[in-house]
TrEMBL record:
Residues 3-101 bind DNA. Gene3D superfamilies: Winged helix-like DNA-binding domain superfamily/Winged helix DNA-binding domain. Residues 110-131 are annotated as: Disordered. SMART domains: Trans_reg_C. PROSITE patterns: OMPR_PHOB (PS51755). It comes from Aeromonas popoffii. The chain crosses the membrane at residues 143-163. The lineage of its organism: Bacteria, Pseudomonadati, Pseudomonadota, Gammaproteobacteria, Aeromonadales. The keyword Transmembrane helix applies. This is Winged helix-turn-helix transcriptional regulator.
Amino acid sequence: MSNKIYKISEDIYFSAATFRLSKNEKDIKLSNKEAELLEMLCEEAGSVIPRNILQEALWPNQDNTDTNLNRQILSLRRKLESFGLLDAIDTIPRVGYIFCAPIEVTGEAENTEARAETSGDSPRARRQYSRRKSDRYFSPKRIMLVALLIVVACSLAALIYRYSNKNTLRTINLGHVSLSTTSETENALKLKIDMLAPLVKKVPRNEEERVSILIGKEAISYFSIDNKNKELLANVFLLRAGHSVAEELQCVINTMALQGKNVSHNYYHYPNTTVRYHSNCQAPDNWVEIARKSKIMVAMNREIVVATVIATDHQGQTLFNLDSVGNIERDQGDIAVEIKNTIVNFIDQKALTSNGMVATLVAALTPPKQKLLFIQLPGGIYLSSYMGGVISWPSRGNLNVIQRNEL
């Protein structure tokens, strides 16, 4: 936009720099587009200016500007007519426009407003500056960067939360015996495994025997193997209400020293994974012995485990018989088994109603769906999530792995 002042028809003045039409005391402010259009018409007064030239000058690189140009021509005509200047802009159909009024350039304006806007003193300049500042702060790149930082921060917070709440394994290893529990069990039972180390030291020491004890939410289990004497013993003792964990652990250690027939059977040559469950640490005669026969198959790139669980009492009578099938997922040495279906083949109803331990074991084995976790412990045995954590181990087919890795 130039600083020229045009005199139109002897008494009308147009200042391109200040966007104004004036005559005597009357003054009209033009829009930016109106001022640009009138200046082009004044510069080419008496000549036809094609529509496409006007459109490209006023709205560069835009399409469908016919309506915009028609609107600006109409508005400009009305403002000129308000000064009594009729038919100043003539339309050449399908070509363009011609400015017919006499034109004379009389000088240049001071353009104080334009300088004020450039210096940032005018309200319009302040608005433009604020808009530019806003655009700078809220540019697409900045928005993407902030969004990325938020995603990273949220991911990091979630990772820290998962790590701080992860169910981690806690173990005390005293050479011949190890004591394990999980952080979830520590929180649930309000115990610290380190405080139990003096009790574990009292476990009888046998040079050829390796003992693992696990404290779970509902039971204390232990597993011992003696390859020299070919003995493998396993027991699970349900925790008694109203007794501290230290008291229960001491009771289990005392029971372990007995190792009588009412405590455990020697499963060293037994082909299946077997364990005895006791209602308390004193190991009364009414134990429940569970044998699990498992078979792993591969189908459609998936490992599927099919297991039969048979529970008997101390007299050898069958208490219940279950079949289950599930998918296996392996993570290094750890195993997750998602049980898809459990079929109850037989339950001794009398034993179920009269023996609380039988009811507990059936309830733990027969939910509609469950996911069991097996975390590998030293010696080739596993921590199972069953009943809040009990010790499990491979059957006889994998027993040599235990001997080779640990003993």
